[in-house]
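Escalated from tier 1: glycyl-adenosine-5'-phosphate holo job.
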Amino acid sequence: MSAPNIETIVSLSKRRGFVYPASEIYGGLGSSWDYGPLGVELANNIKNSWWRWMVYERDDIEGLDSSIIQNRLVWKYSGHEQTFHDPLVDCKSCKSRFRADKLLDEFGSKEAQEGRHHLFVEPANFGTTQPPQENWLQEIRFPCPTCGEVDWTESRPFNLMFRTTVGAASSDEDGSALAYLRPETAQGIFINFANVLNTSRRKLPFGIAQIGKAFRNEVTPGNFIFRTREFEQMEMEYFVRPDDAPHVHQEWIDGFERWIASLGISANNLKLYEQTKEVLAHYSERTVDILYRYFPEREDEEKQWDELMGIANRTDYDLRVHSKKPEDAEGKRINPDSTEDLSYFDTATNERFYPYVIEPAIGVNRTLLAVLMDAYTEKTNEKGETRVILKLTPEMAPIKVAVLPLAKNKPEIVEMARKIKKELQHSMRAVYDDTGGIGKLYARQDEIGTPFCVTVDHESLEDNAVTVRDRDTWEQKRVGVDQLPEYLQKRLD
Ligand code: GAP
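Tier 2 regenerated the structure:
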């Protein structure tokens, strides 16, 4: 079983402290969310798992943490200033505003969706844009989902980068102070390619990994933490010889299927999607998305899926555009502002070239949502009551063990329980809880995914043993306090 819909997870998250609406006491801020005490632990577990798998368990990947605000030229030459747009349309009748391609994906027939390329501004040549060809929604008589009228504006490109100004004397009108909040962490990696290459004395193939915030002024954010304007990405740029790119691309697709499965996500709720030419990003030759079934309640099976992550072959696009040397057809430097050439010299073959890049990019929010949805189960107890159990893997569980005193008015029991918690906290995330009766405490820990509860009772004072309760089976086992850390660690591993 997994969650029947995202709403179930929204309510569990608020009730138990995974995720809260941001700025809630001031009425909220459209599609912004804060991670609560359990959410921050789960997000950290996801990031630690990714970092360990990506950086520590391999010998060919270095880490990086680059700035959120970079020189504006980074975004000029990356192509984001010119092409990082979504097609925006307004219903002239009810004034609702939509992202036109998503509108077709969600409400359009297959024929309407096939014409979605009419909505996009073509990136054509670097540094130029072309207007969309026609008013496609009007042409296909597409009704507004809000009011049902067919009265659309033309689709127009809306740049998703958040703008800001840098420096005390700057004003909004001062173009020289204009800067952007990064819309992807990847560019920080490309512009540090030579730094990392030289300081770590790497040879191809090698990768650079980064986890950090990205910002996009999304036209239609929503579906809880699925699409937000501020989110965290885990990205890795893997630099290879151009000939090796296709098969390395496939290796990373296979690798990520395995890593995602290791988070406890069922293969039934995952599938691959090969991006079509119309939706490929301006830098990509081929992108394969891994989709998760975020919308199981939708009748149309095709519409149950959405992107968890993308794995792109970015070719040598990024290293070239940030380099001072490459020239266009007329012999003009493509980038007269860069002071660096980001090409690579292969000492074995005496060749100089721009490496190709394979990029697996995954969002922390979307991973966390998929992990929560997939772990969600319900179970009926002997009284006929339905209980929620979050079957998180031990690695993902925000709390590994809860130590509970059976009688909180008995000081010796409380003291023993607190002492056990203190001993366990050296090796695992442990909590002490005496805020309710034992049944309520078990139910709470089941609902937040804690794999084990340890109960200290009257007998514990005599036999120096405790009851260990398993979240998934509700089975109980008596374990000596001396063996407890080792016993729990073994079961968690
Ligand atoms: N550097 C490539 C890149 O940024 P992307 O497909 O635009 O590619 C990568 O983003 C991942 O970041 C997505 O697969 C998704 O998991 C996450 N992501 C993108 N936009 C997001 C948003 N508005 N809210 C939450 N996560 C988002």
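The pocket of glycyl-adenosine-5'-phosphate is lined by residues 184, 186, 216, 218, 227-228, 231, 233, 235, 307-310, 359, 361-363, 365-366 (CB under 6 Å).
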